[in-house]
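Section 3.1: Structural characterization of target chains.
Under the original work plan, the team committed to producing a structural model for every single-chain target entering the pipeline before any wet-lab resources were allocated. The record below documents one such target. The sequence was received from the expression subgroup and is listed exactly as submitted; it comprises 150 residues.
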Amino acid sequence: MELYNAFKDVGGIVHTHSPHATAWAQAGRPLPCYGTTHADYFYGEIPCARNLTAEEIEAGYEKNTGTVIIETFREMNPVYVPGVLCKNHGPFTWGKNASEAVHNAVVLEEVAKMNFMTELLNRQVEPAPQCLQDKHFMRKHGPNAYYGQR
């Protein structure tokens, strides 16, 4: 409920323990944007929220999980980054409806898998150039979006 109340454009939320995204969450690492698959759906890095404190876990675990996600998005647009990793837990995604939230969960898992393989192949990999990230995200989701069927 915390997320629905804070993120006004969200109509569906999904939480999974998909293996690759959960591995990144357990490692406490955000998902950098290494390529266009990521950039087509998430604008920039997918953050990893902090751990809940012992007090937050004891005094309302589920509510405080939402609160920590909201805290993570204080300076971010949850429509442009429709997902988060919760440290030592797993991924949460959202969308305008349940179907879009599920789709974003599938994309997040695939991006986590690709990032894992990318880092195995190149330990010095850098995020995709910002201009490429901008192009891929904004052509689908920006104010002048034109890519795809209407």
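The helical segments are 2-6, 19-27, 36-41, 54-58, 61-72, 98-121, 130-141.
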